[in-house]
Amino acid sequence: MIPNRDDPQYTPTGKFQCFVDLFNAKSKQYYTPNQSLSIDESLIGTRGRSIMIQYIPSKAAKFGVKLWVLAESITGYIVHLNVYKGKRYDPTPAGMLQGSYVVNSLLDSCNFFNKYYHVVTDSFFTSIDLAKELLRKGTFMTGTLRKNRAMPSSMKNPTINENEAKFLRQGQLLLCVYKEARRRKPVRLLSTACRAELNNNGKPKLIEHYNTKMGGVDLADQLVSAYVDDRKTMKVWKKVVFNLLQRMVTNAYILYKQNSDAPRLSRLSFLQSIIEDLAQEHLLSRQQRLPNREPNNARIRLRKIPTERKKIVAVVQTETGGMGERERELFVLDVGMDFIKNANIIMYVWTNNEYI
């Protein structure tokens, strides 16, 4: 029973929190990530009415439910995520930056302290105090540093030329400032794991490490958006559940690739096999009720409509090869045929034994 809004036990995530908990539990149960991790924010686009709705102008959707995500840097495997409920229901402890609170919460939820993981974050999360705190907890950190954060004046207001780097070290804590071009602003970075070294082009290796390891969460979002199956709805909880289902399938495909020998299924074939396996029980029961139907152990695919008339058709737009030339053809849902690639399904049309 979900509490009412006036109830002290009410939480905006009450309708789907059990699903979030299941996602996090299974993600950690079946996979142990490599040393390099990345933490960043993600957005589930929706304009539904909820106190959780956030506005992030840098995201494509702009409005939606914000997630704090911990992912493996190389593969994009999502290890843990938290839904941000807003300032009222998810406050930051006094005297602590929100970014520091998020990083500590994610790592603590996964029990990753004192295991010497290397966390890469952007400037929203990174601070010198957080880096020192994580180092005491047996965790390395690398990230960009905002100018308004506490740091030595030589790093905050450096006198630096084009393609020049300056370093400052205190124990294991390394600060770096680098200016790539004359008209560009200096970039400040922090690390408790990297060395003060330069590449052949004069750029710090710390920047190369950051660029390589920071994109874990963005990679996960990219993988999810490749085969998006969103449904139009103003129910915020439905948007979150659908998005988590996509992330589950993405994690499953990463596990499949790492535990299968070549040749492997493509991601599209992997998705189709999951759908067919989930639908198999329903198709078998339907075949028992309707024995005159076609056998349902074959895969449901699209095929070009034959000369005879069918009742359910799909209007599909395909490229004909010419510059700007397009052609519309009629296809029908059927079994046992290969999937038509590069087809954009426009609509499904019900007909009464006649073409529309």
Please specify the SSE layout and strand pairing.
Blueprint: H1 17-29, E1 36-45, E2 53-55, E3 63-72, E4 78-83, H2 98-109, E5 118-121, H3 128-136, E6 140-144, H4 153-156, E7 164-170, E8 173-179, E9 187-191, H5 205-213, H6 216-226, H7 236-258, H8 267-289, E10 300-304, E11 312-319, E12 326-335, E13 343-350
Helix pairs in contact: 1-7
Throw out a few tags for this protein:
PiggyBac transposable element-derived protein domain-containing protein, nine-stranded mixed β-sheet, 13 strands, alpha+beta, 356 residues, PGBD, 8 helices, 29% helix, globular, four-stranded antiparallel β-sheet
Overview of the structural elements:
This protein is α+β, with helices and mostly antiparallel strands and 356 residues long. It is built from eight helices and 13 strands. It has helices at residues 17-29, 98-109, 128-136, 153-156, 205-213, 216-226, 236-258, 267-289; strands at 36-45, 53-55, 63-72, 78-83, 118-121, 140-144, 164-170, 173-179, 187-191, 300-304, 312-319, 326-335, 343-350. The strands form two sheets. Strands 1, 2, 3, 4, 5, 6, 7, 8 and 9 form a nine-stranded mixed sheet that branches. A four-stranded antiparallel sheet has the order 10-12-11-13, with no helix packed on it. Strand 8 and strand 9 (187-191) form a beta hairpin. Helix 1 runs parallel beside helix 7 (236-258). It is globular and about 80 Å long. Mean pLDDT is 82; it is low at 298-304 and 309-356.
